[in-house]
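Quick one: structure for this chain?
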Amino acid sequence: MTETSGDLGAFYNDQVSKAKIWQVIGASAVGTMIEWYDFYIFGSLAPIIAPLFYPPGNDTFAYIAYLATFAVGFVVRPFGALFFGRIGDIVGRKYAFLVTLLIMGGATAVIGFLPTFETIGYAAPIILLLVRVLQGLALGGEYGGAAVYVAEHVPDNRRGFYTSFIQITATLGLFMSLAVILIIQNMMSPEQFAGKADGISGWRIPFLISIVLVVISLYIRLKMEESPIFQQVKTSGMTSANPLIEAFTKWRNLKIVLISLFGATAGQGVVWYAGQFYALFYLQSILNVTPTSANYIVAIALLLAMPFFVFFGALSDRIGRKWIILGGCFLAMVTYVPIYQAMQAAAGSEVVTATSQRDPVTGAIKLTPQTIGIDGEIKNAEKVLPYTNFNDLVSNRATWQLVLLVFIQVFWVTMVYGPIAAYLVEAFPAKIRYTALSLPYHIGNGVFGGLLPVIGLSLIAQTGNIYAGLFYPMAIAGLTFVVGSIFLKETHGHKIWDEVSPN
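Got it. Here's what it folds into:
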């Protein structure tokens, strides 16, 4: 690439074709979507496959242990961010997320073939845990690579718009996982899907489909070129010898990491998981909505909300990133309780409390939604929206009320998530960008956000209050709003090419 005007960024932005940009976005987005699909299949199938991988006789313990294993994948994401971020800043963006794709695909395929507890005993949950660790490490490196790669190809004044398509991938991956599960469930009986009849284990199919998807994505990514900004950094000898040290021991960089975490990504993470995963958990485990109905409700809401990721990404190019992100945190904080109260009313659930009992042998907490009977006695709540047919479900008014209420939560998600990639890329210098932005993103999402289901379950179990699980995301979103309002710098208008342009 030849520099002709003294402003390398302007020159590149003028010369690069829109076709090239969309090729870059497509290649990055497809791979990232598949990795999120792999990651979320694990959580989406929790109620069905959890009992298969743990000692029989206590399904509640199995479910809790499975959720804990699910959470491990989130906890290790920051370590993957550090490891693959370093590779991305030294070797290249393309190489790093080729490796993460292979690790994620391989780990997911293992689950599809993994024998259950009945076959190999305690080796089953141990292998499952190790696979989940690999998934978390891979995803820790994937997002940063995709976000940086796209951002370093696109014009400065359209960065929010173009990177927002990467933001869609997480939600699209969840939607895809739910859609695949629902399609396969409709093709066989519940017993066949759960592996309890005719020697058929339908739950394995979504994991095995991942193999085909990964091969396609790998083929696409192998044809990609390295990011032009990284090429310029490497050609100019500007790469960091140790991006970890430079990012986290130099105060000017560490300060940005901490502000990005507590003033943006922590709140963004809990809002994201509350609006999608916790909503699904609440429908199934608290309101006693049947799993199929709950999956349909969340999937429809996700589909309707996805265009708003792009809307808010593009809007951030015009008015700035900061207040869109913080606005989403604030709205989520003040509306969660009334939204979840409305969800209960819409579902027709009469749950008033959730009792918890601790198994004296396993220590597992059993959570049981309860209601008040006609005689005034407390009793276990009945299942609601027990529809197995899609047409019956969508013809029910309650379904669309619940879709709207989940949609509102996902709308807050699009506000906090749509502009976040553009903000993070603009906040850090090119030579440490991959490493530096990955850590606050994955701590915010993987730790603060990823632990939400487990923390929410524990709060409900301790208090009996079915809304207690909301206190955690509300507190974190509130903290983020305060910290971000004071310390978060607006990055809108920052020209990331300036630092690599020759004087």
